[in-house]
C-alpha cells in the first residue's frame, strides 16, 4: 500500500477502498480513536461494530500502520473546510516530504539520517502549535511511534510483488458439500457440474462489497459454465457474532444479488480459503477450475473480467 500511496491517483482510491480500509472498518484499533473506513472518511459512515478492541489473527498485520493510513486519508486526501492555510501547508508538507518520501525506506532500506533531517526540516518550517493541531486532527502518533512504523513498513500482503500462497495451488473443495452453512439463497449443490467456480467473501457493512453484487449477478446470467457461490461473515476479521436479521434485510433490500448466498457462521469457508490465502481484504473472490481444483485467480471482483475470460478459454 505504501508504494501505491505516492501516486495520488485513482488507483490509490480504488485499492485502498477495496482492500485495506474495507478490512479496517470492522476493527477498533484504539479504543480512544476508532478507525475510519474509507467510506467513513468520505461519507461520514461508521461501521456499527466499532465497540471494543480486537486483534487480527495474523502476526504481520500492523494495526498502527492501518490506523495511520486511515487517518491520513481522511484528513489529507479529503481535508475539510475547517483547516487554516497554515494547517493545509503543514498537511501537504507532511504528505509529500515525510509520508510519501519515506514509503520505500522500510526495513533494511531505512535511512535514519535522512529521516532525522526530514523531520527537522518539517518542524522548523511550521509553527509548533499548527503542527500539534494538524497531527491531532489526523490522529497521527507521536514522532517516535511514527518512525517505528515507517521503519517496519506495510503488512506483507500490501507490499509490491506479493502473491497469495494459495495462488496456483490445488485446493480440497470437499468442505463445500458440508452441511455447515445457513442458506439464504440457493443453491451451491450443482457446482461440480460447472467448469469454473467463483467463491466470494463479503459482509453487509463493507461498501465495496455492495459494488460487486451486479458484477457477480452478470457473470451468473452470461456465463453458463461458471458457478458463483458467496459466503457472508459479518465478523470475518473479528469473529464477532453474526446478526442474521441484518444480513437478510440487506439481501432483501437489493435486486442485484442473483446467486447462491450462504452465511458462514461456523467459519468453515473462511478457514478453508480466506485465512490461508492471507489476502486480508473484502470483497475477495477465488476463481477455481473445477476439473483440477486449482486456484487460478484471487482478487477483487471489480477486476475479474479479464482473468475470468482467460480462464474460461483454458478449460
TrEMBL record:
Transmembrane domains' residue ranges: none
Domain Thioredoxin: 158-315
The organism's place on the tree of life at top rank: Eukaryota
Signal peptide residues on this chain, from the entry's feature table: none
UniProt feature coiled coil, ranges: none
Entries under Gene3D superfamilies matching the protein: Glutaredoxin (3.40.30.10)
Cross-referenced SUPFAM superfamilies: Thioredoxin-like
InterPro entries documented for this protein: Thioredoxin-like_sf, Thioredoxin_domain
Protein name according to UniProt: Thioredoxin domain-containing protein
Origin species: Fibroporia radiculosa
Taxonomic path: Eukaryota, Fungi, Dikarya, Basidiomycota, Agaricomycotina
Amino acid at each position: 500500500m505504501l508504494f501505491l500511496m505516492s501516486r495520488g491517483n485513482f488507483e490509490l482510491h480504488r485499492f485502498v477502498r477495496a482492500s485495506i480500509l474495507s478490512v479496517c472498518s470492522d476493527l477498533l484499533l484504539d479504543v480512544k480513536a476508532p478507525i475510519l473506513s474509507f467510506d467513513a472518511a468520505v461519507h461520514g459512515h461508521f461501521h456499527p461494530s466499532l465497540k471494543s478492541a480486537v486483534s487480527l489473527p495474523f502476526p504481520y498485520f500492523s494495526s498502527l500502520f492501518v490506523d495511520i493510513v486511515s487517518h491520513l486519508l481522511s484528513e489529507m486526501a479529503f481535508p475539510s473546510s475547517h483547516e487554516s492555510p497554515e494547517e493545509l501547508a503543514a498537511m501537504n508538507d507532511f504528505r509529500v516530504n515525510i509520508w510519501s518520501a519515506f514509503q520505500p525506506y522500510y526495513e533494511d532500506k531505512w535511512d535514519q539520517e535522512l529521516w532525522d533531517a526530514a523531520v527537522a526540516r518539517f518542524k522548523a518550517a511550521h509553527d509548533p502549535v499548527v503542527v500539534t493541531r494538524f497531527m491531532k486532527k489526523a490522529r497521527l502518533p507521536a514522532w517516535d511511534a511514527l518512525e517505528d512504523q515507517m521503519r517496519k513498513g506495510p503488512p506483507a500482503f500490501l507490499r509490491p510483488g506479493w502473491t497469495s500462497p494459495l495462488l496456483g495451488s490445488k485446493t480440497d473443495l470437499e468442505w463445500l458439500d458440508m452441511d455447515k452453512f445457513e442458506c439464504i439463497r440457493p443453491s451451491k449443490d450443482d457446482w461440480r457440474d460447472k467448469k469454473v467456480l467463483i467463491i466470494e467473501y463479503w459482509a453487509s457493512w463493507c461498501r465495496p462489497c455492495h459494488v460487486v453484487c451486479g458484477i457477480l449477478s452478470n457473470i451468473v446470467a452470461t456465463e453458463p459454465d461458471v458457478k458463483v457461490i458467496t459466503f457472508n461473515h459479518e465478523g470475518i476479521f473479528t469473529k464477532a457474532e453474526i446478526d442474521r436479521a441484518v444480513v437478510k434485510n440487506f439481501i432483501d433490500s437489493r435486486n442485484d444479488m442473483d446467486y447462491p448466498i450462504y452465511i458462514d457462521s461456523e467459519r468453515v469457508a473462511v478457514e478453508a480459503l480466506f485465512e490461508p490465502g492471507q489476502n486480508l481484504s473484502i470483497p475477495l473472490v477465488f476463481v477455481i477450475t473445477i476439473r483440477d481444483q486449482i486456484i487460478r485467480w484471487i482478487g477483487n471482483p471489480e477486476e475479474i473480467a479479464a482473468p475470468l475470460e482467460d480462464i474460461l478459454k483454458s478449460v
